[in-house]
Amino acid sequence: MSGAGVAGEASRWRSPLTGRVLVHDTPHSLAAIGERWPVVDGIPYLRIESEGLVAVALDHLDAGCPDDALVALLTDQDAWWTGPATDLIELKRLVRERDTLSLREAMALLRMGPVADYFAYRWSDPTYLAGLALIEAHWSAPASAFELACGIGHYLRELTRMGVACLGADVVFSKCWLAKHWVAPDADYVVFDAAGEWPVADQRFDLVMCHDAFYFLPDQPRVAERLRDVTAPRGVLAVSHLHNAGVAGGAKGPARVGAAWRDLFPTARVHDERALLCALIKQAAPPLTDWRDDPVIEAWSLVEGEGEPRAVAGGVAMPPKGATLRRNPLLGDDGEAAWPSPRYRDEYAAGCFWALPDEALPFEADDARLRRVVDLPERW
Q: Which of 179, 215, 279, 301 has the most crowded CB, counting CB atoms within 10 A?
């Protein structure tokens, strides 16, 4: 891989505890004085306050049992997770059959619950599409990209297919592992806590992103500064879906008033997320707005970097040429939306232009742009 940030170079990883350079002491582990971390399936696991899981994984790796180490790390969850715990029998099946299972089957074996719906159907949800529009409107032909809270790699898939060298980071190992095997195999991945020392602290990337995640991260002022630190001098920082505390009806998640977001991103150029989505459908340049607490703005998205927004006419926001497009799995046989759950419907239905009948569409657009047909991973 090439670019301002070269993912995967062991000499570039830093300790999440001390910031010291980590080096390979074995092919499956990274070490510095007084500490050692596992590398499982090519993914460094550098999550702090997980000493027990780190030790178990290292024991399995040192014993020549990488699949057992993989099963151990697949038990890890977000700190906020309140769903069912994983089952070791199911995880062993997942590891054993990982080359034949679908993405949805894999997420079921990981017992991801409503998070699995979010990931499985994200290809057409308005928040995701607005994030693509944000990237394209401020495209600077990056050679390298870094995404914090990358999930299972939706954005990384689009960028790697455009030749961008990508590094994705998340706090949960299983998400990076799903990304690597089912969604964006050409990206590199690392697991760490945004609240700790960043293992990529001395790397620089042309495009740095945090989509639909920043609002719930801890210590947001510090994370915002760290995102800037890893952005190359002429690079772009893109952060999407920051909830407006003043939205009519209440924000759908942790939120701030506009002035509070402005304090975190004082030089940013700001978009209404809905306007980004409309720009994609209309193939237009999205207008800029400000941080006023407008009750109709549900969420803001922003960029820091050079250049004015351009028309969202193609590029990263649309499937590449030659992609195999399939009917949106959220469209039932009768053409009506078939939501996976009431929760999903309540979160996304209002912004899904593809779910509207033709006579109700506010814009003219083809089925691909509307996402009535979608570019799903091969083993979706």
A: 301
